[in-house]
Amino acid sequence: PAYENIKVEVVGSKKNVGLIQLNRPKALNALCGPLFVELGQAVRDFDADEKIAAIIITGNEKAFAAGADIKEMQNNTFSHNTKKGFLKDWEDVSNCGKPIIAAVNGFALGGGCELAMLCDIIYAGEKAKFGQPEINIGTIPGAGGTQRLPRYVGKSKAMEIVLTGNFIDATEAERMGLVSRVFPVDKLLEETIKLAERIGTHSPLIVKMAKAAVNQAYETTLKSGLQFEKAYFYGTFATEDRKEGMTAFVEKRPPNFKNE
Ligand code: HXC
């Protein structure tokens, strides 16, 4: 499909990494409704494409995304938001079964920070800045910021970020556990592609199960998460790829996974 607010490309030496670049540079990639419809479509397409092992969402050097589009939502009302289900398109990203990695250079603010947190792994460039500045404009995070941020960084830091609206830099974000690694600005994308390619060497079926199991830790209680994990762990023993992985180890050869 032809997109206006994003650019979509297949990258990596095996052409198995789906790259989505947010592309509203003049508005610092503010996340307007049409952008999210396109982003959802692109994520669903890559999720359905058997050749794609992992997905990357990125922006540009100045901004990953500076938040929901303030100009677009400025005149929204409570009843409009409720009737239209404002922000409902965001669920497409969190429903994706394949790993999604956020490669964040520049600003990841408000909805931009929330979009990064919807992803499974966040890599950042040295000049990245994260924040939930909604409080500055008289509102609060609305796409998971008050719920996911405490799960990443704990209550005290999440409260500080949400209640002050202050930004945190990449090093601090890494120290807090919001970001898993920080790279020089111009190395970020290639390092993120390497990560996606590394994930792409494994069985896509088992990767999907592993992702679903880790997500249980964020979405359920410990008890039900452990039950889910056990069921999935046992479940891997019903797959060809589990058999192949262990056989290859014993035969001292690389595995040849079939996604079965
Ligand atoms: C719409 C935005 C925007 C946004 C920036 N722009 N952020 N437009 N929505 N969120 C536009 C500006 O209006 C301007 O366009 C252009 O991008 C460049 O921005 P500047 O402000 O001139 O750049 P700079 O001085 O470098 O400042 C960068 C900035 C600042 C610190 C990131 O733009 C900023 O504070 N932006 C808003 C950040 C924010 O509050 N985000 C949370 C949004 S609420 P023009 O054409 O005017 O020059 C939110 C709610 C989440 O996300 C709810 C669930 C999704």
TrEMBL record:
Keywords: Fatty acid metabolism, Lipid metabolism, Lyase. GO terms for cellular component: mitochondrion. One of its GO terms (molecular function) is enoyl-CoA hydratase activity. It holds the Pfam family ECH_1. GO terms for biological process: fatty acid beta-oxidation. Its EC number is 4.2.1.17. Belongs to the enoyl-CoA hydratase/isomerase family. This is Probable enoyl-CoA hydratase, mitochondrial. It comes from Spodoptera frugiperda (Fall armyworm).
